[in-house]
Amino acid sequence: MIALYDVCYVRLGTRDLDTAARFATEVLGLEVAERGRQSLHLRSDARAHTLFYGEGDPAAQAVGFEVRRQEELDAAGTVLEALGHAVRRGTGAECAERRVRDFLAFRDPSGNAIELAWRPEQGPGHYRGSRDAGITAFSHVGLCSTDPARDEHFWTEVCNARVSDRIGNAPLLRIGQVHHAIALFPSPRPGIQHVNHQVESGDDVMRSFYLLRERGIPVVFGPGRHPSSSARFLYFEGPDGMVFEYSCGVRLIADELLYRERQFPFANSGFCQWGAAPRIREFQ
Ligand SMILES: CC(C)c1ccc(C(=O)O)c(O)c1O
Ligand SMILES: [Fe+2]
Questions:
Q1: What CATH class does 135-283 carry?
Q2: How many C-beta atoms lie closer than 10 Å to residue 145's C-beta?
Q3: What ipTM did this prediction achieve?
Q4: What is the pTM of this model?
Q5: Nearest-angstrom CA–CA distance, 4 and 117
Q6: Ligand 1 atom 8: the closest Cα is on which residue?
Q7: Which of 163, 233, 250 to mutate to test the pocket of ligand 1 (most atoms within 8 A of CB)?
Q8: Residues of the chain with CATH 3.10.180.10
Q9: Is 245 in the pocket of ligand 1 (CB under 6 A)?
């Protein structure tokens, strides 16, 4: 079983790095860790980076998950290859770009690019957001799944994820105590569906709601409250159509023995307990 320890970074492609940089700093509130001619490393917490933008095809995406021991990479490669997944070890330059010591790349059953990363670096000093969005950490990704039941099996049987709740057939998967690190959602195509950052308080969610409206940034869902994680949330659209989410108050699941996953309806009430309706195609 591949022991994922935490979700550690997201890599996104963008056709316009300058626009992505302005959005990531002025709107999202991330800190620029490093800006290259065709690359941008961004911080959201103590880690060296959690969001990477590379100039190019917006479909050039990946999600990085930390594994704690380098031997896990070899073992994971053997398991994945036996299941028919092509695997590739990162080069020195690729590891440096990811601020990790080693990584293994493969695609999940839906075709999402996944990277298993060893020793992701901590950043220098505290995270200092470019605006006070109240961000406390990068926390989870929504992944498009062409077969949620099949992919749930992959993430929970080949990897160590556990189902915290389901919305329809869509599982919300934890790898630590946080309610979920991955939300799999039905889609005809693979891809990252949204990138979540936790914020300090409900006030931060609402302050951002008004700021986004003022800046003309499309709010596509919320403000609302998820019945699954109990988190208050706000979804909005960034460059290249990527959806970002702020949420606060996500529940932690500490008792693995007692906790039982719940089933929510694939309907507005399953997504929001306040009555918000999503304007996001995968949630409709
Ligand atoms: C609607 C999506 C995918 C969703 C559903 C529930 C939660 C949660 O319980 O926190 C999310 O974060 C989501 O992104
Ligand atoms: Fe989310």
A1: alpha beta
A2: 31
A3: 0.98
A4: 0.97
A5: 9
A6: 229
A7: 233
A8: 6-118, 135-283
A9: yes
